[in-house]
Protein: Replication-relaxation
Organism: Jatrophihabitans endophyticus
Amino acid sequence: MTAYPSDRPSDRAGEPTLEPTEFRALPARKAPGSIARSGVMPPVPERHGRRTPAGRLDAVDRSMTDTDRALLGDLDRFGFLTTNQLQLLHFSTNASELAAARRTYRALTRLAQLGVVEHLDRRVGGVRAGSASYVWRVGPVGHRLLLGDTAARLRRKEPSLRTLDHRLAVADAAVRLTLASRAGSFELLKLTTEPDSWQSFLGPGAVRQVLKPDAFAVTAIDDYEDYWYLEIDRATESLPTIVRKSLQYARYVRTGDAVQRYGVNPLVVWLVPDEKRKQAIENAIATSDLDLRLFRFAVQDAITALIAGGAG
């Protein structure tokens, strides 16, 4: 018998629904004060293909604070983060928005000048949003700090708009879950993104397949742990493609591997940009002979409400 979270005994009936902290959207904000007036980050020293000397790399490493390392780790995990997302994750605790924006600006300016981080040429929210419009990624020095002095030199270009939009949407979901967890809506026990969220399994004919959720999360409310595969849809894939990926999740469920690992099958959450897309995906899956108990559907900014409600 297939094990779903809703099959287990639950004491949640009768309990008040947990109200998550409301996070409407995560737009790029105009940074207050001198940040807004400047409109641009200070210039970063140009790199002419020369490798940072080991002695300077050690000096940069020693200068890194715990917040610097956490920020670098998140950029490595998500690939790209906006100024606003970094502010929410690392500089907004017990601080006013003005103070948090200033701290974010100072930290990113310093790390960019060191080559630990760098921003893309493409902005989010337009030039008028100032430094808050930048999208950040690991810089060449940050790359070596993460992988060691023998790390290969970075050779990369600007991501496509479609790739960037999807990666930032994944990060948006992660930021919302993190902030909701801090606010006490639930415990966020684990959150991994690609490729750490991937899971290989043997499909029909003993052919190895790889399940590739955009993220995998484990949350807890009271004595219950809930497991979630997150699929971030940006309305760029056809409905048949969505159904094919959903069928792969169903094949994985039939292997019993997830139940052996977690005691229950994680639910697959399709996060979508709007209600129209949500209804279209739900209808497509419902008419494909798939067990709807395996799936949940939500607009992107409703993820915290869905997770706070539990999988039962």
